[in-house]
């Protein structure tokens, strides 16, 4: 299983950078590293990150509260998953 994480500085939001970066990372993982599934999460109130993932075909699979000892402790997060077999990205090559 692979994981994809990203961060885009505020001056570059809403320019498609995050969406393109995640697509490139996932495409590389599926096609060159033979990864079958990706998982990642974002804070539930981070609409931009949710959109980046959903634009790349990730599906929401769960919501959870971030545990103690972690950054953003106690905040609600969304877990997303993308499987190679159902991904248009894996089919692009």
Question: Could you explain how this protein is built, in words?
Answer:
This protein has about 90 residues and is of the alpha+beta class. It contains 3 helices and 4 strands. The chain has helices at about 15-30, 45-55, 90, and strands at about 1-5, 35-45, 60-65, 75-85. It has a 4-stranded mixed beta sheet with strand order 1-2-4-3, covered by helices on one side. The chain is globular. About 20% of the residues are buried.
Shape: globular
What assembly state would you assign to the polypeptide chains in this entry? single chain
What letter string, H or E per element, gives the SSE order? EHEHEEH
Question: Quick one: biggest sheet?
Answer: 4 strands, mixed
Number of strands: 4
Helix content: 25-40%
**Span between N and C termini?**
20 Å
CA radius of gyration: 13 Å
**Helical/strand content category:** alpha+beta
In the predicted model, the low-confidence regions spanning at least 5 consecutive residues are none
Which strand-content bin applies to the residues?
A: 25-35%
Number of helices: 3
Average pLDDT: 93
Give the strand line-up of the largest sheet.
1-2-4-3
